[in-house]
Each structure stands twice: as structure tokens, then as C-alpha cells.
Amino acid sequence: MLQVKDLTITHKKDLTTLVEGLSFTLAPGDRAAIVGEEGNGKSTILKLLWDPALVSPYAEWTGDILDRRLRKGYLAQELGTGELALPVWDFCQGAPAFLDADPKALDAAARQVGLDSALFWEDRPMDTLSGGERVKLRLALLLLASPDILLLDEPSNDLDLDTLAWLETFLLSLKTPVLYVSHDEPLLDRTANLIIHLERLSRRSVPRCTVARIGYRAYFQERQAGMARQAQQARKERAEHDAKMERFRQIRSKVEHQQASISRQDPHGGRLLKKKMHAVQSMGRRFEREREQMTALPQWEEAILTAFDPDRATLPAGKAVLRLALPELRAGERVLSRDVGLDVTGPEKIGIVGENGAGKSTLLRQIAALLLPRTDLRAAYMPQDYGDTLLGDQTPVELLAPSGHRDDITRARTLLGAMKYKTEEMDHPAAGLSGGQRAKLLFLRMVLNGSNVLVLDEPTRNFSPMSAPVIRQVLADFPGAIISVSHDRLYLEQVCTRILTLTGKGLA
Questions:
Q1: Rounded to whole angstroms, how far apart are CA atoms 506 and 508?
Q2: Residue 325 within a domain
Q3: Which is deepest, 77, 386, 426, 502, by most CB within 10 Å?
């Protein structure tokens, strides 16, 4: 059993409190999902529970973590540059359980995650594996150690649709507790039985933690219904209070008028009016005390994303966006697919799916290379790895206002403020922000550039379940063309007008 008591986490650089007073217990069979907006400390909690040294460079914490020497298995959200450069065999050797496992155990772990066990012994670099292959491989290595608890940071990232279905079954089958972060709403809905909701209210300055031993959908349905009831009661009490205060002001005004007009020759009447004014003032103080005890208006953390300007982003219906004909799709010496053809005209929204390792990201990079230089389009590319696009030593303001002109900087700060970036976050290096915050920066840059063609590799993968519906709506309303790769089932359903599957024989 894992117990967390009164956990508070504070960012060292600007003393921002990310999490305050969080307490929860994980027991066998618990599937606890940490949810919340980007940058609210979800990944930091997982890192802290795995190894406090991972958060010590940027955060301080207080509270108690009682784990009774549990064997923990931790899946980080991303691999480091050094790990990605390792051959697969060398990477596997870094896991003690791999070295101790016999071939039978290795085969069983590989089958459990849908891998060929031969992958363990390959000498190609980790960065040549697809994102899904890397996640599966790392999960297999975790399972070899027979952990007492699993800490999973975005295990659903980069998994194909079949593997997502497997992951749901896998999580439901676990008897040991699992604490995980995921942005996949169907996965959360089908697997979580305990919700840990992290919020930062009042322009992200006041943290709030809610722990509910309930399913994901039920939690948010009850939360919305409760807030609606609270808001209705608060509005009713305020209307009644306003009516009382209006009557109070009328009485006070009348008494003040009487005091001003009473004759000095009537001291008895003056004393009576003075007593009456004391009574009126006492009534006012009582009403003020009642106001302090009224039901508070509910607070929640609203997801915000700036929409695209239709005057700049609209594409004509007959505009030829892409005429692609690839005899072969290659990754180095490997042929991933043959006869890959794709025509896109006007404001189509294309979703490309396929098995992990099929070459979807490779194809999207080649499409981006064709579209970005075009002068008749304003194309933008959002890769899976934001390091390809966002330079780590630049701040959000510098990324959105590269010219350095005062007007551009003001506009960038205004947009960031509208999306609830604190001033300190605007001036942090982008590499230190969460994946979701960096994703928002990419979208903001697309908006500022007036992009009318978006090439997006897993556009919703780093957005929280609170932000994902907003980004899906923004992209569904986008008046330009979208060519995307995604495993987000709701994105494919709500945004894409055409879904294609990449196989070894092209797109179908």
C-alpha cells in the first residue's frame, strides 16, 4: 500500500505552489488517474514517488510518502537524448530485471505487450523505433521486475489503436495498484476507479486537489452537477441579499434625510432618529455578516485556446494542397511502405492511422518538407518531439515574438496571459514547461503566423483531458487543411473528414 499525506510541491525558481495538501492511498486493484491542466504537477508527482532526486533540481516538497519498501516500476513520459541514442540491446541491459530474466520470461513479457521478443536483441538505435514500439519495450522491461506498484506517465502516448485497446485490458487486469497520467479520455473512462484532480485557480495562483474514489466520467458528471447546484444556490442567495441591501439603503437614506431636516427645536425627535440610525447601521452590519456566510460561487480551471483567424486561415475549396506519389517510403535502409499516394484539396482534414512502426511519422515529415517551402500556402508542422521545433533556451515570449519588436512582444504576452500563462512561466525556458504547455505554444505560433495548412503529428497527445475537447473543437472549426497522424479516437471522430490507414502497400 502506498500512502501520501499532506503533500505540497513548490517550484524553486518562482516559488509557485504546484500542489498543496494532497493526500491519498493506493491499495491493490486501484487504478488511480492524475488529471489536470498542463503544468499542474502531474508528472512531478510521479517522479517524486519514484525518485525524489528527479524533482530536486526544480522543486521542493513537504509531506509524507509511506511506501514500505514497495518495488516500483516507473515509465517516464519521454526518454533522454542519451537513452534514445543507445542500441536497443544496450538499453535493455540497463534494466536489472532484463539481465536476470530467462528466455521464457522475456518471451512472456514481449507477448504481453504485443512485441516480438527478437526486438530485445536488436542493435539499431532506440530513436529508430516508433514511439509506440518504445513504449511497449519499456513496459515489457517494467513487467519483468514484477513491481508492487506501477507509476506510468502517459503510457498511452504513441500507441496505435489496437495497442490502446490492449492497454485498457492490461490496466483492468492488474491486481497491483497503478498510478498513471493519461490524456486519452476513453482510456480514463474505461479504466480509472480513483481520480486525483489537480487544479490551479485564481489565474493559476491557488492550487486545489480533489481525490474521488469514483470513475472518470462519473467524477466529472457529479462535479459539473454539484457546481451547477452550488452556482444556483449562490445566485439565489446573492439576489436575496441584493434585495435586502436595496431596502436597507432606502431606509438609511430616509433616516439621513429626516436627520438633516429635523428642527433643532425638537431634541426629543433628534434622539429618536439617532437611535433609529443606530438600528439601521446594526441592520447593515448584520447583512454584511450574512454576505460573508453565503454559498461561494464555484471555481474551476477553464481550458482556453486561442482560435485561428478565419480571414487568414481559410483555404479555397478547390485549392490543390498536396499531390503526393511516393514509390517507396523509407526509414534509412528499411522500406516501410510502397506506392504511397495522397491527394488533398481545399480544407480537408485528413487523419492517418496505422500500426506502430508503419512509418506514419516518417511520412508526415516528408509531407511537411514538401509543404513548408511553398509560397502559395502558409503551412505549419507540429512534430511528436517538440525539441525538433521548440529551442530549449528560448522563452515562450521569444518563441512567439522572434522579431523582438515591442508590439510583437506585447501581443505575445497578451495571448499567453489569455491562456493563463503566469508571468513567470512566460519567462521560463520552453524546455522547462510541460508537454501540454509547449503544445499550446506551437498552436499559438500557428495562429500568429496565419497558417492555413497544418501538418500535425499526434496533435492532442500532450493536452490534458480538460484541454483536449477545446483543441478538438478549435481544429474541427479550422477553415484550412489538416494532414495529421493520430491515435486519439475522439480526435479522429470529431475532427477528421477522411481517415486513411498506412500499411506496407500504401494508404488505404
A1: 7
A2: yes
A3: 502
